[in-house]
Amino acid sequence: MIISVSRRTDIPAFYSDWFMRRFKNGSVMVQNPYRPAYKREVSLKKEDVDALIFWSRYPEPFSCCLDMIDQKNIPYYFMLTINNYPGFLEPHSVDLKSILESIKELNKRIGQSRIIWRYDPIIISEETPVTFHKNNFQMLAGLIAPFARRVIISFVDFYRKVNSRFKKIGFIPEEIREDPDKLEDLISFLMEIARNYGLEIQTCAEDISGQRISIKRGKCIDDELLNTLFGLDIKYMKDKNQRPECCCQKSVDIGAYGTCQFKCLYCYAR
Fold first, then answer.
1. Mean of all residue pLDDT scores within the chain
2. Which of 136, 206, 200 is nearest to 175 (CA)?
3. Which of 52, 118, 166, 263 has its CA 20 to 30 A from that of 232?
């Protein structure tokens, strides 16, 4: 069993004490997000866990938990979202300097191969045009590449509650996937920058196979990567609880929606 920690909230940034208690206890009760009355107990015992996948914007507060996990010899890697957006999109983000210092320290501990950078979601708007993303991505790639081997990109999805937040402040993003020329121009640029910095680039839950560009469809929870890094023998099973375009390996998420304190404007999990 692979444990996702977590798509629904930033456990490393805000709930390290909670995770440590649950890990020591050996299990966690997880509420069904669509049927709140239903809960299930998820084991965190070594014999039941193939790997832990951590999702975060700022992993520094979680450093206290890593000794405990390493002592159990449980495989894990980190997915780190770093977008460097204007403050109105990421109102409670940690400053970039502190984020980079946190990644540097994490890299010293686990190495480049276990740190994956997510540039996600890409939002095209008057405030964040294609030129913003080209300059921003190139700057971030230069800073992050020494500490990571892979970058995953995706474009914003216009969920109803996300659109509602956008409209409330008069923010009007574009749907770049409806403009093949603009999409090709941006992705081709991102691919070139990633290649120049030695970063493997993939997409997340994006099917752009009908476009003129060719970019690998990635897996955030990646059975192949886990097998390579840790000598495991995980057989691929698509996670049916994710979107149809998602290629992720099946996992169990232990987070709860509506609990992330970063409160990013575009977040579907708020």
1. 95
2. 206
3. 118
How is the chain split into domains, by residue range?
2-253
Q: Is the dihedral of CA 216, 222, 7, 140 positive or negative?
A: negative
Q: What is the CATH number of domain 2-253?
A: 3.80.30
Sign of the four-CA dihedral 173, 177, 183, 188: positive
DSSP the chain: -EEEE-SSS-HHHH-HHHHHHHHHHTEEEEE-SSSTT-EEEEE--GGG-SEEEEEES--GGGHHHHHHHHHHT--EEEEEE-----TTTSTTPPPHHHHHHHHHHHHHHH-GGGEEEEEEEE-BSSSS-HHHHHHHHHHHHHHHGGG-SEEEEEE----HHHHHHHHHTT---B-GGG-HHHHHHHHHHHHHHHHHTT-EEEESS---TTSS----B--SS-HHHHHHHH---PPP-B-TTS-TT--PBP-EE---TT--TT--TT-TT-
pLDDT tens, residue by residue, 188-216: 999 999 999 999 999 998 877 556 778 88
